[in-house]
Structure prediction request, 686 residues.
Amino acid sequence: MRTLLFRSLIATPLSQPVPKPAADALSAALGAQLDRAAQRRLGRSVAIRALDAGSCNGCELELNALGNAFYDLERFGLRFVASPRHADVLLVTGPVTANMREALERTYQAMPGPKWVVAAGACAIDGGIFAGSYAVHGGAGAVLPVDLRLPGCPPRPLELLQGLLALMEPSSASRPSARAWSDLRLG
Amino acid sequence: MGTLREALATGAPVTTQAPWPRVVVDAAGWSALGEALAEGALGLSGLWGEAEAVHAALFDEPAAEFAVATLACPEGRFPSLGRRHAAAIRPERAIRDLVGLVAQAAPDDRPWLDHGRWPVRAPLGRKLPPGPAAPYAFLPAEGEGLHRMAVGPVHAGIIEPGHFRFAVNGETVVRLETRLGYTHKGIEALMQGATIEHAACLAGRVSGDSTVAYALAFARAAEAALGVAVPERAHWLRALMAELERLANHLGDIGAICNDAGFALMLTHCAILRERVLRTADACFGHRLMRDLVVPGGVALDLAAPAGVHDLCAEIGRQFPRLVALYEGTASLQDRTCGTGVVAPGLARRFAAGGYIGRASGRDFDARRRPGYPPYDQLRFEVPVFENGDVDARVWVRIREVEQSLSLLQQILLAMPGGPVRVPLPLRGGEGVALVEGFRGDILVWLSLDEAGRVRRCHLRDPSWFQWPLVEAAIEGNIVADFPLCNKSFNCSYSGHDL
Prediction:
């Protein structure tokens, strides 16, 4: 083990250069709702609760890849948390199946405000290829207010990262809002 | 003459199916199959229904024979195979949920995939209006000092949803019961009436980590149904993708199992190698998981950069032995994996558990060899088999299979012939069946096409159907804290099982 650790010490880091946040198209919907106060409050730290609402498991593979040495999610202040009580963001993957709907709603309700919902992958956006099935309600938007959509089947880790960074970058379009902090709970 | 042919000798053969025979039996013949399964003379590879018939895919392991038996059920019921053969219990519960046919005298008549939340009952059968939702009755566990723990469907990590109900005495698990079906998407209903191309996309989304294996199993079933021969190069490209998929998943699993034993260093290093495989797949085929690339008739595109695969094999060949040495040489890690979560060989055989779960418990089965498919007949590879049946054995099967996949990839690159990679498909009816070895085990696809070449009925059987029940057996007597470790060493699919 010592040899392996020593090699790691002298090896060059594998982590990729910091990607730019997703293009305006991705962040525009969110930018209108996220104001600078929210940005300040979150600081540079966003806690994410990932929830599989019925996916094929492809999106989860790429979410897990975000933790590897190449993407190293936590250097951006982004981290996945186990409890919805600790989460700022609910990241939903997969179409919302009839059998998972209640679990999804209860997870969202367990999160403290302010909170945001990210639909990751084609299925979470609109049900994808499974839309129209008797066992599927549709995308995450069929059940929860969605703030950010990250397309792809599955989205590449870099695309996921760019989308999540858009959550943390202050948007020049948004202005400080007078709304009470509790009103920031979107939807 | 093999046991299977004898068992089906009295039935009426159906000529439309390829490549395995399909035989229509009567109720007595069906019950006799149940006896043969209970005696271990036959193995069960799949059990599914249509509106008025049930089908069982059977195999005779020593003779390497496979066949499908069909029983017409005009009165909506059939003799339960689960009564004599436990592996059939959950498929029979699913048949009742999906097509409405009832297994008579079944040992367990609780619903399985249907949680009482669909707008329809028997969606693949008579499409009845929904009934009143009933609470799910978990199996009892009684005794002094026992208490219950309910876990899921939402779990702490980034994993799929399922419910685990533990009965524990102190730290020791007395009984575990799994409840699945949360990710049921109605894939088989979506397939009905779909074009082959669309159905192939659906098949590739049954279980995301096995997208190549599922697409391959579906494509092979479609090609068997239509009598289409695929260009030689397509077979080799398919095997290249399948081995890359196996490599990526095994590397991810080895790291994740060690991580669940609290040894994160292994995960870090294995995750780097896994990422390299996915990046190579992306560079070669334009998609990290190689989704929608194996299509009925061949493959969607040719290999762009073979050199990338060479470099990948060289890099993993350099790094992986160090990780194996690390696994072998870390006593605190071995202390957690050795002797934990044991599956007895007899149980693995009775359930016909495939993949690393069967092979870690002495079941020497690999669909690449039997029934076999090209180009594996032209490649040299070993199927590693261990006897201990514990977490450690399941890790070792994966380690040896990583080495085998590296060797296979290099052989494929050397020997791959040139030529076209896809042929057009005719529009006509037929029935086909295929068994393909995914990283997790053998995937069965049975496909029936109507005269217009559209899907009449398609059944996709994930290896997890015969592996999930063994998780319950493996954890018995272990401590709760070892459950994540055991479960990860199985790494059963939720989505593939739930459909």
